[in-house]
Amino acid sequence: MALIASLKNAGSPVFALVDCNNFYCSCERVFRPDLARRPVVVLSNNDGCVIARSAEAKALGIAMGAPYFKFRSRLERSGTAVFSSNYALYGDMSSRVMSVLSSYTPDMEIYSIDEAFLRLDGLAGRRLDAHAQAMRRQVRQWTGIPVSVGIGITKTLAKVASRVCKATPACDGVFDMTRYRDSAPAMDRILDSVPVEDVWGVGRRHAARLAARGVFSARQLRDLPDDWVRRHMTVTGLHTVLELRGIPCLELEAAPAPRRTIVSSRSFGHPVEERSDAHEAVADYMTRAAAKLRRESLLAQSVGVFVRTNAFRQEDSQYANFVTDTLERPTDYTPHLLRRAAALLDRIYREGFRYKKVGVMLSGLEPKFGRQGNLLDCLPGEAEKDKARDALMQVSDALNARYGRGTVRYAAGGAGEERRWHMRQAFRSPRYTTTWEELAVVG
DNA sequence: TCTGGGGTCCTAGGACCC
DNA sequence: TCTGGGGTCCTAGGACCC
To answer: Closest by alpha carbon to A359, among A417, A318, A308, A295?
Structure first.
């Protein structure tokens, strides 16, 4: 029987989506086993919104993206453990999970911090199920993170399977939709149970338009005429529909596409009304962005700066703006980028507003090594200056890597304690896995 | 007093060139 | 003096993702 099932699948792709359950909450729980049965939530930057909820927190009716201040008392009354987000911890836990997964297949795409697509071609039936269960067990055992696995003959169907899996405890963490590929009634039943807005690629806007046309389930979406979909949802939407029909349109992307932009921005902990505060923040974000640029061996051709007031405060007058500027030659040298960003901020900063957020963007990215030369590079002395600049950046990056970010920084970014604009982060857990000093807190 | 951050892709329309 | 079409590149806006 298993052999027949295997033969059936021969030659057609099998996609598995491995998804960490409530990932950020699960990361916090790994180091706090006492929270195993307590509701847990993790907040966005600035402790603004709830961005991860444990199953218990979901049961309390805490919605994804719920503003923390509105739910604070409910969370306190229910004894919910609340954490600020701790990306150093989540990023490190993520790479541990991914490294376990990668031992199960040569074809894997890390899709996000908590999800990976795997090709498991050639497996079917009981063998496929056993393989997926083994993966789950090993991830759990080696990292402490619970995952679920959805399996289908396209990426979109694997996503559907993963959703069904999480909604159905009887699945025991694995749902294999390839079992039903040849049974139209079974496929219909499964897709009928999935609300159209839960389909990968269908967001709020499309869901509203689909509802207006009487389309509420994944099955109804699958059965729409191609030309309507093409017209209202572009080719991207058409790919989604074809994939729901079992026609693969999306490949596994083993190597990440080259990055096109780097954005760094934060909301302020308090409204900013001083130009100097805005300048400090822009300098701080640009310093981070430039460090990321160098970490990835890229140069930026363009610099952008944006500012925004708080749109939620209707009583405040509103203002938002964004400017970009092209550099004479691409660079990764922080002082040059800082100077340019400061000039851009001055171009769009208006007095008399309460600013909520500023940010910087680097674009026109290109690889630092092996790029096409620029006439300006050939000016006398320029090569030596570049060398000195690179050396300076290498030293400061190394010091910051060794002794912590901010060990070497620019006066323009503000001097520590006076950073009034800094975001709130009241409930951050220790960086257990990446910072020795903070590990000591556990003992 | 309080509502995140960082990305990608697609399309339409305008500028420009031949 | 008047008139054409097609290709390419760029940008802004809208949609989506986690």
So the answer is: A308
